[in-house]
Design goal:
Number of helices: 4
Bound molecules: the ligand Nc1nc2c(c(=O)[nH]1)N[C@H]1C(S)=C(S)[C@@H](COP(=O)(O)O)O[C@H]1N2, molybdenum atom
Structural class: mainly beta
CATH architecture of the largest domain: Alpha-Beta Complex
CATH superfamily of the largest domain: Oxidoreductase, molybdopterin-binding domain
Number of strands: 24
Largest sheet: 5 strands, mixed
Number of domains: 2
Radius of gyration: 21 Å
CATH topology of the largest domain: Sulfite Oxidase, Chain A, domain 2
Order of helices and strands: HEEEEEHEEHEEEEEEHEEEEEEEEEEE
CATH class of the largest domain: Alpha Beta
Length: 401
């Protein structure tokens, strides 16, 4: 595709996303659209990715990335909300402003962050709440992500709690509003701000400046971003400039209107009727994705094949991944890796077999966590208007030749 065509196509896709409609049909198979091609051109610091829009950049990793526990930075997905993101950040001048109900307002530089606080590391999956949205039937509006709006990295930074302790909290402090560097282009568009309750800040919540041993890629939030292990990534604010401590929840748009699900037992609603009460999405549910073989792959009859993929949840930990080669009639245990990256990271799995029959074949993967929660069958998928938290059993269709 020519560059010109690429931008034309990107603009159309972006327009469709903004209107909450999509020209892409998810079909009725309850499977995310995972066989889209990567773009011909790449963004800075990125390999070519599945590209939904270039302004704002919306980039998805192709399925085959999900065979390893850590996702390469240059294939890590990208999601921004505002068309205008800062084009230049000077790391020597960048500061995070800590303000509001604090004893001492702080402007913390990158250097201070790296020198004045205990440095900590955590391996954690970052997944957009709308990942796999294209699998819902009917398809909710929004970006029609396949399964690649996610990744897992080793994050390095400082505890958010330590930073707040340095500023000192005033009496009544309850909430934090965290904001990135970009500002909405139109004055009526709300800025992207997320609110966290102070009780949500365990020791794993960090302000990270490194990802897999390198500076954060620009598009992933250089120079610093929030890392909230176990939680969907709409709360993982990038390019943090301001942290404001408040005594009240402010009901901000992206927290209270956009990234929400029904606040009822099943967290579900129907396309015809909106749930009365909603709540922000937070903990991730249990899920797995097959990284190999990809949809449409050709396998050789009777030759050793190893299904590989990743499984994760909100931090309870993965107990088991099961594979089915007969459309879900029988399931067999896959082999899990040692889990040494910790409970917030991907567990990779593998399962060896020899295809016995020529023709089309479905490979399914189902993860079960330590709480006994497992990925639902297509018929049990809970639908919601935002298209969040899809975690249906993964299926790839291959051809044995
Ligand atoms: N400043 C800022 N932070 C943000 C966002 C944003 O638009 N602006 N989007 C959020 C959402 S919804 C997601 S899924 C992740 C995407 O992070 P990534 O681009 O590094 O993959 O960033 C989160 N943090
Ligand atoms: Mo997201």
């Amino acid at each position: 595709m020519e560059r010109r065509d690429f931008f034309k196509k990107a603009a159309v896709t972006a327009g469709a996303a903004a209107l909450g409609t999509s020209s892409l049909d998810a079909g009725t198979t309850h499977q995310p659209i995972d066989n889209r091609k990567v773009a011909d051109i790449a963004f800075p610091e990125k390999r070519p990715m599945i590209t939904y829009s270039d302004r704002p950049p919306l980039l998805e990793a192709p399925r085959e990335v999900f065979t390893s526990a850590l996702t390469p930075n240059d294939q890590f997905f990208v999601r921004w909300h505002m068309p205008d993101i800062p084009t230049y950040i000077d790391p020597d001048k960048f500061t995070i402003n800590i303000k509001g109900l604090v004893k001492q307002q702080l402007k913390i530089s990158l250097k201070e962050l790296k020198e004045d606080f205990e440095q900590v590391e955590v391996a954690a999956v970052m997944q957009c709440g709308g990942n796999s949205r294209s699998a819902f039937t009917p398809t909710p509006g929004g970006i029609q992500w396949g399964s690649g709006a996610m990744g897992c990295a080793l994050w390095k930074g400082v505890r958010l709690r330590d930073v707040l302790e340095k500023a000192g909290l005033k009496k009544g402090a309850q909430w934090l509003a965290v904001q990135g560097s970009e500002r909405a282009a139109y004055y009526k568009t709300p800025n992207f701000i997320r609110e966290l309750h102070l009780d949500d800040l365990d020791d794993h919540v960090i302000i990270a400046y490194q990802m897999n041993g390198e500076d954060l890629p620009y598009l992933n939030g250089f120079p610093v971003r929030l890392v909230v292990p176990g939680v969907y990534s709409d709360s993982w604010i990038k390019m943090i400039t301001d942290i404001t401590v408040t005594d009240k929840y402010q009901n901000l748009f992206f927290m209270d209107k956009a990234y929400v699900i029904p606040d009822n037992e099943c967290e579900c609603e129907t396309p015809e009727k909106h749930a009365k009460k909603t709540k922000p999405i937070w903990w991730m549910n249990v899920k797995s994705i097959i990284g190999y073989p990809n949809d449409g792959a050709k396998l050789t009859l009777k030759s050793q094949t190893v299904v590989r993929g990743v499984a994760w949840d909100g931090g309870a930990g993965i107990k088991e991944v099961q594979i089915s080669l007969d459309g879900g009639k029988t399931w067999d245990k896959a082999i899990l890796d040692s889990g040494k990256l910790g409970r917030y990271a991907y567990r990779t799995f593998r399962y060896g077999f020899k295809p016995k029959k020529l023709g089309e074949m479905k490979i399914m993967a189902k993860a079960i966590n330590k709480l006994g929660e497992e990925q639902p069958l297509a018929k049990d998928i809970k639908w919601n208007h935002g298209g969040y938290k899809y975690n249906g059993i993964d299926v790839v269709t291959v051809k044995v030749v």
